[in-house]
Amino acid sequence: MSNIPGRASGLRRAAAPLLLAAIAFAGAGMAGAQDLSSPVGLWKTIDDESKQPRSLVRIVEQEGALVGRIEKILTDKTDARCDRCTDERKDQPVLGMTIVTGMKRDGELWDGGSILDPNNGKVYRSRMKLLEGGRKLEVRGYIGAPLFGRSQTWLREE
Where does the signal sequence lie (predicted)? Predict the structure, then answer.
């Protein structure tokens, strides 16, 4: 009977590294999990007319506001330039271009920012809203009031 307590503490010592590894592994999985309550992440844009994937836009948070840039072009126009832009982006490559700026959370919306349409060079006021539990993002560009604009639905990639 005197061996049993010693054996139990030996098992505890042997199991401790396994338990720590399991906790670390679980924590790493949680750290990589998506936060579906925020637009931060990678989004696939869909062409309004062809309904085909157009680009991947990475949205990040900077100084309390959301900013999005084109991370990958999914069409054959990978070397496209914003020839219709009228600001500092004129004639700059669309790949890597910042197209979303200044979006701040307002309840269930992200609002108060702007979005550039590189196809026509126009900058629109913008608002965003997560749909389907954060798997889709409704992006609305407008002039004046949100009523006068158009929406696109972007699909979460990661």
Answer: 1-33
CB 87 within 8 A of CB 94: no
Query: Does pTM top 0.70 for this prediction?
Result: yes
Separation CA 131–CA 137 (nearest Å):
6
Residues 4-32 have pLDDT tens digits of 555 544 544 544 443 333 333 444 444 44
d(CA 120, CA 59): 21
| Residue located via tokens 């913008």 | 126
Q: Tokens at residue 92, please?
A: 């700059």
